[in-house]
Structures are given as C-alpha cells and as structure tokens.
Amino acid sequence: MNRTPGETAERTTERTVSDAPPDAERLRRWRMVLGADSADSTGCTLTGQDAAMDGALDALYGGGAGKKPNGRGTGGRSAGLGASAPSVARWLGDIRTYFPSSVVQVMQRDAIDRLGLSALLLEPEMLEAVEPDVHLVGTLLSLDKAMPETTKETARAVVRKVVEDLERRLESRTRATLTGALDRSARISRPRHRDIDWDRTIRANLKNYLTLPAPDAATTAGSTGATGTVVPERLVGYGRSSRSARKDIVLCVDQSGSMAASVVYASVFGAVLASMRTLSTRLVVFDTAVVDLTDQLDDPVDVLFGTQLGGGTDINRALAYCQSRITRPADSVVVLISDLYEGGIRDEMLKRVAAMKASGVQFVSLLALSDEGAPAYDHEHAAALGALGAPAFACTPDLFPDVMAAAIEKRPLPIPDKEYQP
C-alpha cells in the first residue's frame, strides 16, 4: 500500500540536502514516498538511516493488512499486542530517534487507531516510551476506568506534563488579553472629578477640538496667534478597584468521546481563568449527566481525571444547570463547547439559550476548542443558535483569549469565517 504524502519521510525528516546526483536523490525521495511495496519500480535501495526510517514507516503504514510495529502480520488490524510489547517499545524509541516530535505524535496516534495499541497504554513501560500530547491525554482519559493501579501514577505524570506545557504556552497571553478587556469593561462614563482618566478622556474627545479666534493683539503682545481647546463632551473614568469578581464565567463542556481534545484545553483554560481574581469561573462537564468540577479547578489534572469521556449528550440538562447558577446575568459569560448533537430536548435547549441572552448573559457556542478545525457537528442546531445571535464556530486555543475578551466587553466575536458554517 503506497503511503500518502502525510505518511512519508519527505515531510517528517530533518535531513540535510543529499550530496547524491539530482536523479539519484529524486529516486531516493520517491522510494521513501512509495514505500517498500513499490521498491522495484524505483530501482533504488535504501541504506543506513534511510533504511531504518523506512522500516519504521513500513511497520505502521505499509505491507500486508494488520502489520504490527514489529513487522509481523496479524491477518487483521485489531489483533492483541500484548506479546509484542517489547517490539512496540523499540518501535516507539525508533520513531523518536528518526522523526521530530510533532511527527512522532501523529505516528503514535495512527498506531493507536490502526493497530489497536490502546491496550498497551495500560502498561507503565509503554507510557514512559510515548511522546505526550493532547490526543494521547484524550486516549488515556478514555481508558481511565480500565487502567490498573500500577499504571495510574504514570498516566497522571504523562497528563501533567502535557497540561504544564499547555499552561506555559497559553497562560500569559490569556491573562494579558483578559486583564485588558476587564479594565476596559470596568471603565465608567460619569466619573467623579478625582476618578477622571484625563489621558483617555482627551483622546476620546479629540474630534471635539475647537480652534479659538486669535486674541486682540493690543492686549496680548507677543502672542503667536490662534489657540484651541478640546471640549470634553464625554468623560472617561477609572473603574473603582474591587476585590469582588467583575465577571462570572461558566464553561459548559461536552465530554462525549469526540470532544476529547476540547476537554483537555477547556480544563487548562478553566484553571487559568479561575486563578484570576477578577473572574469567578465555573467548569461544568456533561454527557447525559452533569458534573460540576469547579472545586477542582486549582489542578487541571484532577479536573481531567474527573471527566468521563464517552456516552450520550444532553445539552438541555447541562444548560439548565448552568442557568440555575447565574446570579448576575449582565456580568455573566456562558461558553458552551459542544458539537451540538443533542440527545435531550432540542426546543428546550434553544429556549434556554434565548432566555439567557434576553436576561443579559453573553452566550458563546464553540463547536470545538482545539487545533483540529471544525469537527462534525449538527448543522441544524448551529443554524438555530446563529438565529438567536449565538453563532457556533470552531475555536483554536490561540484564538480563545480574544473570543473571551470580546464576550467580556460585549462586542462582536472574532469568528473565523471559514470555520463557521450556519
């Protein structure tokens, strides 16, 4: 079976340009693209590292159906792999040697899907050999109930490594973006004299600049001519500092199996938001039941292991719970993260969204919170939410702080046009 472009060494190796003649180098590249099954058509023989890389790729993508990473066929792609665990561990080590981390993560994910390696992730030795990433965390969470006690600590260490990496990448920008939005949303338009922000007041009223006529030359010897002034029609004041939260944030996250990456990112963002004193953050996860994980937000790893990926979906029940916890509608933002495949009462779900928006709640609907783009989702429900003024769209982790800032300031959301399909 020929490899697709995404499965070739061409995309995955960090190699220097070969010193071979152009034709020979071109044949070598085609040989790596086509795989061992098409070796005769190129007449090119691989040696050294090229041969080792080709073997690692062939174990996963090439050869007969059901081939395992140890190179032996199984006659089917879902055969048990317990007996070949040492060979799989060696294969995992090989791909980490030959390919960059981003490609290793893709190959691991493909190995889990194609070769049924999920069972091996229940062994501590295997977990120590894999390259941690968001998708691996999702797989581990789905296996949590089947995981033996001997593996759970290793699994938590893997999850914690991914979570800490995400926090380092996302926290500073999230804090900076939302702090600015909170400051702007807290500004008052009728301040006392001592609370006037003169810098912003002048800038806000520059359009009201008036040029005054030149004074009488007889009374102002040495004057340079006409003068001007800014008429402050609108005063901008500092919001009074307060120890109480300025905004209430509710993250309502679908924990069905297809939303695994979104659950991981939502847990990390939930922990970041909860650490900001000016925000009161609640994290609710749901399938057909609703679980409030707010008390665990100080540790997103505990949050993740408190989820249960898989099962049905009852968005209406989840929104009913969130609605019951809203005490300051005008200062609340509800973020629903779901593919919108509703197993509950559709009309009631839409009525709840309409009621929340009518009360002043800022409602945001995200089809996904991940780097994977728009997932499969219920187009009818997405269109219905859009008609209510709550358009549903997929959001990347990098865009999420901007989305939250817009919701806090009650301005239009930065919706990626290509993602949103009403």
Question: What does this 3D model show about the protein?
Answer:
This protein has a 6-stranded mixed beta sheet. Strands 1-2 form a two-stranded antiparallel ribbon. It contains 16 helices and 8 strands. The longest helix is centred in the middle third of the chain and has 38 residues, at 149-186. The relative contact order is 0.08. The chain is α/β, with parallel strands linked by helices. The chain has helices at 9-12, 22-34, 39-42, 48-61, 85-98, 101-115, 124-129, 134-142, 149-186, 198-204, 260-274, 300-305, 315-324, 346-358, 379-387, 400-409; strands at residues 209-212, 227-230, 247-254, 279-286, 290-292, 332-337, 362-369, 392-395.
SSE topology:
Elements: H1 9-12, H2 22-34, H3 39-42, H4 48-61, H5 85-98, H6 101-115, H7 124-129, H8 134-142, H9 149-186, H10 198-204, E1 209-212, E2 227-230, E3 247-254, H11 260-274, E4 279-286, E5 290-292, H12 300-305, H13 315-324, E6 332-337, H14 346-358, E7 362-369, H15 379-387, E8 392-395, H16 400-409
Parallel strand pairs: 3-4, 3-6, 6-7, 7-8
Antiparallel strand pairs: 1-2, 4-5
Helix pairs in contact: 4-5, 8-9, 8-11, 9-11, 9-16, 13-14
